Amino acid sequence: MKFESYHPTINLLFFIAALTGTLWFRHPVYLGISFVAAFLYSVHLNGLRALVFNLVLLPLAAVYTWWYGFYHHFGATVIGRNFAGNDITLESYIYGAVLALTAAAAIMWMSCVFAVFSSDKIVYLFGRVSPKLSLFLSILLRSVPQIKARARKIRIAQCGIGRGPGQGHIGQRIVNCLRLLSILITWTLESFGTSSASMKSRGYALKGRTAFSIYRFDHRDRTVVIFLFVCLTLTAMAVMLDQTYILYDPEIIFNRITWISYIFYAAYAALMLLPLGLELYGAQRLRRSLEGAYQ
């Protein structure tokens, strides 16, 4: 079973926990777990395109690490000097790498959010609380793949008449790119206006309006929620015991790693890898059932 087939509340709880842990924890072990889990799950959801995008993030993270370490001068371990005579320290480079990987992991998790959450789930989760917010979020999430599809259609049409982004001399290419961007922006704004008028005509913002939903909280969802909260409880214990705390200025200082630290690492890894594990387990069960049916 795919993770997106579970109850929308479970999807929401997981991504809130994943993004919170990714943005909050600066400990390299927890950050590494978040980065690897986001990398694997985004590739599992979006395929080769996500793999290429994730790999492109790595050199960008390396460039940011170099820039941060070159222009920030905290730390006690001096490894060189820049052109202005300021110290270049190991701690600043490591902290720059931590910030870069945090941003990369958060971007990959957001790509997973766009793949898992549909307009129906947004309406179900926020429709009764704030109809306007749910409408805005549903349009926003749906607009990302729509904009990509429209840009592809515009590019193909413009290439057919000799006005593609890669056709003509340099000046003509710039004009072609600006024309493509102008068409895309106009088309997108018109789509937003049409969607807003359509929802308003259906009485979407009327008080007391109810919405049909096909989501039911079953035993499978309860099992996942129990597992999710066990992992969150162990992670919260790690926070309370300062197992996730680390100091980079002036030296790298963190609590001693003990046997209980590995329990916290395993719980956080299980939390981050939960959707990927559920999908792989569901695919394995489906494969076994199909093999049994054909035997």
Contiguous low-pLDDT stretches (5 residues minimum) are: none
What is the multimeric organization of the chains shown? single chain
Number of strands: 4
User: Average pLDDT value?
Assistant: 83
Describe the sheet with the most strands: 2 strands, antiparallel
Roughly what percent helix? over 70%
Beta-strand percentage range: under 5%
Q: Number of DSSP helices?
A: 10
What does the overall shape look like?
A: globular
Gyration radius over CA: 24 Å
Strands of the widest sheet, in order across it, are: 1-2
| Count of separate structural domains | 1
Architecture overview:
The chain has helices spanning 8-24, 28-46, 48-71, 90-116, 119-126, 131-160, 170-201, 219-240, 259-272, 274-294; strands at 78-81, 87-89, 246-247, 253-254. By secondary structure, it is mainly α. It is globular, with a radius of gyration of 24 Å. Strand 3 and strand 4 form a beta hairpin. The strands form two sheets. It has a two-stranded antiparallel sheet. The chain has a two-stranded antiparallel ribbon with strand order 3-4. The mean pLDDT is 83. The chain contains ten helices and four strands. Helix 2 (28-46) runs parallel beside helix 9 (259-272). The chain has one domain (3-202, 220-287).
Task: List the SSEs and their pairings.
Elements: H1 8-24, H2 28-46, H3 48-71, E1 78-81, E2 87-89, H4 90-116, H5 119-126, H6 131-160, H7 170-201, H8 219-240, E3 246-247, E4 253-254, H9 259-272, H10 274-294
Antiparallel strand pairs: 1-2, 3-4
Helix pairs in contact: 1-4, 2-3, 2-4, 2-9, 3-4, 5-6, 6-7, 8-9
